[in-house]
Structures are given as structure tokens and as C-alpha cells.
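Chain and backbone:
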Amino acid sequence: MHLRKILIAIFVIAVAIPGICAGQNATARGAKLTHQSWGQTPEGQPVDIYTLTNARGMEARIITYGGILVSLKVPDRKGKFADVVTGFDSLDRYIGPPAPPFFGALIGRYANRIGNATFTLDGVHYTLDKNDGPNSLHGGFHGFDKKVWTAKPIGNNSLQLTYLSKDGEEGYPGNLSVTVIYTLTVNNELRIDYNATTDKDTVLNLTNHSYFNLAGQGVGDILGHIVTINADRYTPVDKTLIPTGELRAVAGTPFDFRTPHSIGERINADDEQLKYGRGYDHNFVLNRKGTSLELAARVVEPKSGRVLEVLTTQPGLQFYTGNQLDGSIHGKGSAVYRQHVAFAMETQHFPDSPNKPKFPTTELKPGQRYHEITVFKFTTVPAKTAHQ
């Protein structure tokens, strides 16, 4: 009798396990992951390109140099696919010279700016690269966007990238072990998981710097895109784009995107902050209820019907409207990248947080694990509701 019960139990488990596994792999069903060589750096390091494709045909292409998202193809309301991120057709253009403006790259150790390229931690003064006037921008001259990451496929819908940033690299303390996972889901979401640990107190702020044009990269400007940002406040800046420390209400200003507005509607308003950035280049203080994924922003391109929703665990969002692009850069398919040809939604902690004690901390200590998530979700809307 006991043997019969045991056999029945084994049979039940054997039947159940495939169903459990099938549920876990539901988002990967019909997905495909391939890779090939994409050249090498001037130092001789090989660079590969990985292509993630989901069951609906959405495609993300990522290179190991800089963890760069070089292409992201999504459908419009009629099912027509287009690449919606700026970038280049070859590795040498990403490497430069001239250095490109961080198209699609993983940014670290510190995304955005640190004022006067200095900060103090545990009583120790650290000096960083001054690569943006008097300030340090996006990790310095040789940040994470210029490193070759180690790639490892996870199943057929995720790519894991790892990098060890050694103590003192670009002036930052601690040996920092970083893991970033790109996942393309069946729901047309590109999910990015950021993880890191350190062996010494340090500061850390990671993001992805993709520039989007939902009409298709190189197709006109983004001034007609309609934006909603879930933020009651933003962090105003000085002339060098370093936050003043104030958390200013967006109400009554061109920075109020709590209801939908086109990018071009107020971008040329007589506003000191817009003049400093030559457009929008500001951190928004997201309205958050907890620590889980929450909707930060929504962008609609009326003609194609493409919609981008940005969900994140981060407290801030840098909204940048490609203000410094001047037509000197020719991208994929010889597209000319002029001012306002694309926008960025950089989920992040606040700029200059190491020098602003009242901002959410960016300190990471030994024994702690840095973990942040951002999701770029793509859908469409019918023409009659595209302007809403």
C-alpha cells in the first residue's frame, strides 16, 4: 500500500513539474536569442552583438561594448515595425572619435552630473574627471559606456552583462561588481535589471541612455510627441546644469507634464530653466508610493500610434530632448541627428546626490546589494485617441 502511494505521488509530481516550468517560461515562449561578432576595440578586445526577438516580432540588439542598445524594433498601430532608438551601423562610430553622446549605453558609475567633479564620502575627498565643463558627467571620460562587458545568455529571452569596476577607476572608491540583465518579454517590454555589490563604501547611479523617436529613428523631430510624467516636482539647475538643491513644484511651469503635453508646446517658453538646458534636460522627482515598479512616464507618437510607457523603481527621471544634437552626427542609415530628433527618459537617482544630503542617498556599502529595475513597455493607440 505504501509503495502504491509513493508511486502515485511521484506520478503527480512528474505531471505537475512541466506545467510549473511552462508557466515560468511563458514570457520566453517563441522567443529567440542569437549573437555574432561585431568587430573589436582598438585595444583588440572582441565585441559581440546579441539579438533578442520575442514571439510578436519585437527585436532588441545589444552589443557588449558599453552594453549599448543599438536597435529596438517595435510595431506601429498597423503592425509595421521601425527602429525607434538612435545609434550607428558600426562599432567604430560608437567608439569614436568623436565620442558619441551616449546613444543607448549603460551609464556608470554615476549617471548624470556631479558638481565640480568632486564629492566627500566617509571624510575622504574624491576627485573625478571633468568631462562636462567643471563637472563630471556619466562616469567620466571612460565610464561604463566605454567598457567591454562579459555577456551570458539566460534562456532565449534574456542577456546578462557583467563588469568589474576596480577600486579607483575614474576616481571612484571600491571594487564594484555590476550585473545588468536585459529581458525582452512577450508583452513587448524591454526590462532592465541593475545589480551591484561593493567591497568599500562608494556612490552609484546606473541608467540606460537610449534616445527614442517613436516615429522611427531619423524620422523628423520629436516635438509632436505627447508626454506625461508622474511628478509634482523637479530639481531646477544652475547654469552648468547642476541641481540647486531645491525641489520645485511643476505647477504653473513648462515642466508640468502631469497631464499630457506635446514636447514642442512649451520647449521655447521664456523660462530660465529651459534656457539653461536649451530645452528639457532636467530631473523629475517621481511620485512614488513604495519601492516596487511604478509608472513614471508615458509618451505617445500620434501618427504611428506607438506608445512608450516607462516603469521604474528609481526615484527620479531625467527627461532630455536631444538639445545638444546639431546635425554633425550621421547615424544609422545616414540619418542626420539634428536638435530634438530624439528624447531620453533616464531613470535614475538625482544628479549630484553625493553633494546634496537632502536628496535620496546614492551610497552603497559592503554587504548591501544595489538593485533597480526599469521597464520600457511598448503598445499602440488608435488614431482617434492618439492626441489624448
